[in-house]
Amino acid sequence: MGKTVVNAVGEQCPIPVVKATRALREMGEPGTLEIHVDNEIAVQNLTRMASGHHLTARSERVGEKEYVVTVEVPVPIGEAAVEEPALACVPDARGDLLVAVDTDAMGRGSEELGKTLMKGFIFAVGQLPRLPETMLFYNGGARLTVEGSDVLEDLKGLEARGVEILTCGTCLNFYGLAEKLAVGSATNMYAIVEKLAGAGKVIKP
């Protein structure tokens, strides 16, 4: 298993996809293709490219303006014909929606069912045609953004696509989770109120 790395930082659409496709076709053995980019549009287009090749891709935000898209390549594709992705060379895929999450279990009744529903809710947010601009997590919702969370990978994927992930710092401290925050950043109540006041639309699970 080998790893091919493509540096497309600083490149604009459609160059990252062009470079990644070329590297993918040149891979002579199973392995992973790792593409480094600096914008969310490239992440979205690279994910579409992988889907067109029937390959699995995951994305991660590794810096303020650096993202890594990793494509698993179980079998080299060579020059096989594939479905060309519809590239979206537009500035942003986010709307003015804000998602506020104050619990780690959705609804009342069964806590086990509530956790399952919350996992489905977070996944569904990632399928929206226009992603939320910000997701706020406070009180029990703070448990969703820390190490061991069942929705951590989904949240990291949303962050990599440009969604701002903010968790109440007071809440993290209260639950003893301040050192375990694994996605986004901690914030304060003043910033939370500002985000809520400035949002075009707010939804809560």
Question: Could you explain how this protein is built, in words?
Answer:
With 205 residues, the protein is of the alpha/beta class. The protein has two domains: 72 residues, 2-Layer Sandwich (Translation Initiation Factor IF3); 107 residues, 3-Layer(aba) Sandwich (Hypothetical Protein Ychn, Chain: A). 32% of the residues lie in helices and 24% in strands. It has six helices and nine strands, in the order E-H-E-H-E-E-E-H-E-H-E-H-E-H-E. A five-stranded parallel beta sheet has the order 8-7-6-5-9. A four-stranded mixed beta sheet has the order 1-2-4-3. Helix 1 packs parallel to helix 2. The protein is elongated, with a radius of gyration of 18 Å. 33% of the residues are buried. The model has no long low-confidence stretch (mean pLDDT 87).
Helix count? 6
Q: Which CATH first-tier class of the largest domain would you pick? A: Alpha Beta
Q: What CATH architecture label of the largest domain applies? A: 3-Layer(aba) Sandwich
Average pLDDT taken over every residue: 87
Strand and helix layout:
Elements (H helix, E strand, L loop, with lengths): L1 E6 L7 H12 L4 E7 L2 H13 L3 E8 L2 E8 L23 E5 L9 H15 L8 E4 L14 H9 L3 E5 H6 L10 E3 L1 H10 L2 E3 L2
Parallel strand pairs: 1-2, 5-6, 5-9, 6-7, 7-8
Antiparallel strand pairs: 2-4, 3-4
